[in-house]
Every structure is written in C-alpha cells, then in structure tokens.
Amino acid sequence: MSGAQTEGERLAELAKRRGYFFGASGAYGGAAGFYTFGPQGAALKSNVEDAWRDRFTVQEGNFEVEAPTIMPEPVFEASGHLDGFDDMLVECPECGESHRADHLIEDETDLEDAESLPIEEVEALIADHDLQCPNCGAHLAGESVESFNLMFETNIGPGSSTPGYLRPETAQGIFVEFPRIKEYARNSLPFGATQIGRAYRNEISPRKSIVRTREFTQAELEQFVDPERDEPELDEVADVEVTLYPATEQQADDGDYVETTVGEAVDEEIIGDPWIGYFVGIAQEWYERIGVDMDRFRFRQHLAGERAHYAADCWDAESEVDGDWIEIAGFAYRGDYDLSKHGEYSDDDFTIFRQYDEPKTVERAGVDPDMSVLGPEFGGAAGDVKAALEALAERDPAAFEGETVDVDVDGETHTVDTDVANFSVDEERVSGEHITPHVIEPSFGVDRTVYTLLAHAYGEDEVDGETRSYLSLSPTVAPTDVGVFPLVSNVDELVDRAQAVVDDLRAAGFSVVYDDSGSIGRRYRRQDEVGTPFCVTVDRDGLEGDGPDSVTIRERDTARQIRVPIDDLVAELRTVESGARTFDDLVEAYELVAPGANA
Ligand code: GAP
Predict the structure, then answer these.
(1) Could you tell me if 302 and 333 lie in one domain?
(2) What rounded mean pLDDT belongs to the chain?
(3) Quick one: three-class SS letters along 223-250?
(4) Which residue of 186, 395, 454, 527 is most buried, as measured by CB atoms within 10 A?
(5) Considering the entire predicted model, what is its pTM?
(6) pLDDT confidence of residue 111
(7) Which of 211, 448, 449, 453 to mutate to test the pocket of ligand 1 (most atoms within 8 A of CB)?
(8) Could you give the CA distance from residue 61 to residue 48 in angstroms, rounded to a whole number?
(9) What are the pLDDT digits (tens) for 266-298?
(10) What is the mean pLDDT of residues 201-228?
(11) What is the model's pLDDT at position 598?
(12) Atom 16 of ligand 1 has which residue's CA nearest to it?
C-alpha cells in the first residue's frame, strides 16, 4: 500500500489515470454525481453486465426487456415513488449547501440507521450533537429537515401538461409491462423478467465517486411467483456458504455474523423466504466468480425502519471498501405491492389465472331484486339500491338471513324486504381463479460492483526487484483479455508474428492489446496495472527452436511464464479464461520459463 492515501482515494486516482472512470463534463466544470466510464471502465462494466446477464437471465431461463428510462407521472403515482421516494434534506443557513440529514448523523455519531428515524428525531439529533455543515462549519441546530423527492422531473413533449420522470429504478419498466410480458410466459408462473439499464436519482449529496451517483446502472430481476404454489430450486444452492448479518444480530449488544449455508439459513428461518435464500445463494457464487473478495463481503438484513415502501423483507449484499460497508445489491420480497397498485391505477390486467388441479364446485350468493317493487319505493335511486344489494350479496351473504336487509347509497340507508331482493345461493363449476403474483427482486448496482471489483483487485508486490501495482481482476470481467508483444520492436519477424497472433486471438473473440513500445518489463507493468490477466510474448527462442513455433504466456498475478506452441495458444487461453483449467494446470502441462526471462 502506498503513502497515506485511503483505498478510495487511490482507486479514484488509478481509475482516472488508467481510464476506468472520471467525473463527467469536466470541460465545463463537471456536475456532481455524474461519471464517464473510460475505455477500461466501459469494458469492465460491460463484462460485468454480460456476466450478470449470463447468470441471472440466460442460466435462469428468464426474459430480458428494455423499457424507456422516462415514464409518465401516473406510473409513479401508482408505484408510490411520487409520495414515498424521499430522503431527508437539511440546508446550511450560511453557505446554502444541501446535506442528507441522516448521513450527517451517521457520519458523526454511532447511529447506523438514521434513515429509519422520523424527521423530528433527526432534527433533535442534529441539535443534540451540535452537527455542523461539512462545507463551511456553520451550526445546523434549529434548521428544519425536509423530505426531498429523489426523482428527476421532466415534461413529455412541449408544454407542461404531461409530466414525466426519469425512472428511479429499472423495475417499474418491468412491472408496467407485466400484462404483455406474462403473455410471453404463456400466462404461467413462475417466471422472471430482467432488465439492465440506467436509473436516475437526484441524490442530495452524491459521494464516494461512483458509489452514490445521480445516474447509474442497475441489473434487476423481477421473479413473479404464485406464493401458495411456487418454490425455488433451493437444492441447487443449499450448500453454498454465506456470511449473514440478520436484523436480530445487528440489534443485539453482542450481535455477530452468522456463518452458515443457504439451506440451513432457510431451514432455521434466518432468511424467511426460500426465494430470497435461493437468490442469495446464486449471488454469493456469482460475486465470487467475478472476483469480489469474499472475506470482505456479507449479506445484511434490513432493519424494519430501513425497508423501502414496497418491501416486506430485504437483504443487502454488502462489500467492504476503506473500512465502510457498501450496499451493492438488494434482495427484496415485494409481495403483490407493485402489480396490485398498477392493477388498481390502470385499466390493464395485472393478474394471472391460477388453474385448479380439478374444477371445483363453488357456491355463489346472488340477488335478483324485483324492480316492480324497488322502482315505486326508491324512485331514481332504485338502480343504485339494486347494485348495492348485488355487491352486498357477494360480500356478506349472511346479511340476507333476516326479514329485511339494509344497504347504503350515497350515505343514505335503504331497507329492503329480503323477499323482494330474491336472494339465492347457487352452485357453480369453476376451473380456476385470478391471482396477483408476488415478486421477489434481486436488484444489483453495476457501478458499485465495478467499484468493489477494482478495490478488491488492487495489489502491490515486488517483481524482479521492482515494486509493481496490479489489478487481479478475474478473466471473466477484465477489460482486456490478452496483451501481445514482440520481445523487441526492431525485428520484423517478431513484429509480424506478434501481429498475426493478435489477429488470431481477435478472430477467436478475445479482446487484445498490442504493445511494442518501451522495455518488455514496462509493457508487462502497464498491463498488470489495468488488470490484463495474460500477456503473450513473441521471442526469438520461440521461432528458432527445433520444435513447433511457440510463444510465452505470462500470468499477471504470479508473473510466471510458460512456453506454449502458437497453434495451441487460442485453445489454452480459452480453457483458462472459461475457468475449465487454471494456470497451474498449464504450468504442469508446459515448460515453465525461467524467472526473469522476457522481463
Ligand atoms: N428496484 C429496487 C431498488 O432500486 P435500491 O436498493 O434502491 O433498490 C438497488 O437500489 C441497487 O442500486 C443498490 O443496491 C445499489 O447497488 C444501486 N444504487 C442505488 N442507488 C444508487 C446510487 N445513487 N448510485 C449508485 N448506485 C446506486
């Protein structure tokens, strides 16, 4: 580790210098909370998205959709975001800077979940702890704390008659289209729909570079299930080991992590819902595969006051960077909240028909009021009285047991003879019923995953007497798969063969960087620093020996090199990149080049 830089500062500096990410629109002074991913970062991020798509869409047999990022206001009235998607804001009376009140409290006190506190309590805590503006030091005691809605508002088309919002989560694009997506799933549960795309939140205080931004990428899966019938394939992940931090442990004085397996966690109801357990297991394996350091990773259950307005239970995947835990994904049980709301607010059908195993005979209570009596008795209100009697029969058949029955119409009570209502209970054969599916939602932040991968991959060591810094990114996500070099740049034969190797590797689908500038040692260091897992060097020894022409492959993390026939290069790199073999396997199969050679 170098100097007094924190992990986050070092990461931001490396990210900018090596083209991972940097503040956007710098030419115009920038805008807080917006980042551009440079060539390395865009490639890393897109590889993370591809790996996620492969695991959570393709392997699960789910459907991927791509919905617009701007949606009309009624969507967010129904979803509850217009009313409930707020953070607590306190403004500095001196410099005018806005701050997230709960974050100020968490930064300056031992409290960890200030977000769940009522506004009055937050105001009191600011006063009790005499919190000051982080920008200018002014005292914030006595300042009012306001609810601030995080959605970016816009107008759809000219004028202001059709307000729209940039979506604060990709999920709503899936929920709103449920009536059509369910057709592709042949109206049969369970099924999952996924989406990878941008989400926008007008964060009060964006911070920690790409950890809290105003525009970011989410990868979300909405798993639609019949809560009474559908169960996940828990066996597939039952043995996966996880570190859990349940709400009860967080609240206990001597609370601790629970090291367990997914199967046990669900059996012992530490994780209350098997679907959440299933996705926690898959996520654990996926994060490990893409290179998250599992010693700096946990699943933490939300405390009751912390949950979003739609969630009945929620677990976060959290990674540790710089001593802080960052929420990188959430696993929420959303129940039927979203589909019920959209069903209620729109004219579309957000239910699924649940077919019974066998048709059932059911009793249906009904009325057939005698209008020749109701008409003269209730005049213009007779039609409404009839409708009220029908609704009451369905809702409360017992109300018709007496000689008269009362119904309310526009606040007035009307009494009708039960004989006149003609109440009866008839038997009917039905083959099923309409239900509103429940939703389990694994929701991943792609930017925070990228941040975690870079932080966890950073290492420094000594190679050939020199300190080097490197990123031990997994071959699954590394921006560049292979660096290819001629050992020296002034020998045409080496340069031509190296170019031919580049062409072969690119044709085979590898992302390749060619570099012939500077010493071979410097070229290796450059690739180490951006996390390229393998470097291939074309040297004279490989072209002049008795056997087939060969090249060296150098592994980034150990700097070991092996000599491999050029004809086998593509196949061998494929096996290590796919994880089918390790570099150790190749070391056993091929000649190990002496340390210091080609260095
Ligand atoms: N649909 C559920 C949902 O949006 P969330 O916990 O608000 O849940 C999901 O967001 C993930 O999106 C988080 O776990 C986090 O990784 C990422 N995320 C949320 N806000 C973010 C922000 N301002 N900047 C970067 N990533 C963010």
Answers:
(1) yes
(2) 94
(3) EEECCCCCCCCHHHCCCCEEEEECHHHH
(4) 454
(5) 0.89
(6) 85
(7) 448
(8) 19
(9) 999 999 999 999 999 999 999 999 999 999 999
(10) 95
(11) 60
(12) 445
CA distance 411 to 385: 12
Cα(116)–Cα(306) distance, rounded to whole angstroms?
A: 5
Q: CATH number for the domain including 117?
A: 3.30.40.230
Q: Confidence class of residue 307 from pLDDT cuts 50, 70 and 90?
A: confident
Do 495 and 566 lie in a common domain? yes
- Rounded distance, CA 386 to CA 371, Å? 8
Residue 475 maps to a domain:
no
Please state the φ and ψ torsions of residue 259, each to the nearest 5 degrees.
-90, 115
10 is a domain residue:
yes
Determine the residue of 56, 279, 327 to mutate for testing ligand 1's pocket, defined as the one with the most ligand atoms within 8 A of the Cβ atom.
327
pLDDT at 544: 87
Atom nearest to 168 CA in ligand 1: 4
Mean pLDDT of all residues in 216-221: 98
163 plus 269 within the same structural domain: yes
CA of 187 to the centre of ligand 1 (A): 30
597 within some domain: no
The answer as to whether 598 is a domain residue is no
Both 101 and 32 in a single domain? no
- Report the distance separating Cα 570 and Cα 510, nearest Å: 9
Q: How far is CA 437 from CA 169, 189, 337, 343, 543, in A?
A: 20, 8, 10, 12, 65
pLDDT of residue 342 exceeding 90, the answer is yes
Structural domain boundaries enclosing 90: 86-149
Measured in whole angstroms, the distance separating CA 335 from the mean position of its chain's CA atoms is 18
Whether residues 340 and 378 share a domain: the answer is no
**Is residue 99 pLDDT above 60, yes or no?**
yes
What's the confidence (pLDDT) of residue 208? 86
Same domain, 35 and 182: yes
The CATH number of whichever domain residue 211 belongs to comes to: 3.30.930.10
